[in-house]
Inverse folding.
């Protein structure tokens, strides 16, 4: 369905803020204009849930999470950054594999099955998108996903 992604992402972040129990700030860097994408809303909500839950889970107390939306060549990038423990460079590709978890001891303490990002990747790719990670150990992580942007005039309407 055709979705106003600007409204959509604000709603998703609003809901996270309302339920946030941790001492963490979520900052938005979202342009003040409408972007339209063709998505299954429930599925992209699941993607955002998985990525933002990780950002919260791996953030330190008092940490800041930034949700940024950037337009780039007919694509819409969504970037979720945190100031958490980070991910070692050599493990960056693997975090999207099923059941993969960095540092078993640390992960066991924090709980989880290692499926969140694998599911997110599957759902994003089903939308002709792509998802990837950048990280610096002990500084933080950024997960970025890209979705095709609908053309302003030529895009079909429904
Ligand atoms: P689940 O999401 O199934 O509850 P999980 O969070 O461990 O479990 P994924 O979301 O797939 O699994 O993430 C895989 C692994 O990648 C995590 O175990 C963690 O080691 C690492 N990881 C993911 N996001 C972050 C992040 N924002 N900061 C640091 N490490 C991360
Ligand atoms: Mg997870």
């Amino acid at each position: 369905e055709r979705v106003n992604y600007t409204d959509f992402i604000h709603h998703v972040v609003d809901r996270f803020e309302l339920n946030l129990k941790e001492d963490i700030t979520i900052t938005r860097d979202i342009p003040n204009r409408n972007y339209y994408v063709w998505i299954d809303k429930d599925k992209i909500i699941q993607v955002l849930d998985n990525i933002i839950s990780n950002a919260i889970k791996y953030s330190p107390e008092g940490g800041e999470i930034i949700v940024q939306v950037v337009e780039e060549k007919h694509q819409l990038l969504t970037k979720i950054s945190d100031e958490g423990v980070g991910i070692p460079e050599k493990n960056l590709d693997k975090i999207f594999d099923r059941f993969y978890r960095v540092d078993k001891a640390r992960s066991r303490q924090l709980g989880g099955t290692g499926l969140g990002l694998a599911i997110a990747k599957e759902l994003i790719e089903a939308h002709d998108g792509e998802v990837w990670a950048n990280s610096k150990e002990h500084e933080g992580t950024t997960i970025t996903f890209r979705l095709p942007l609908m053309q302003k005039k030529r895009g079909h309407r429904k």
The two ends are 8 Å apart (CA to CA). The mean pLDDT is 92.
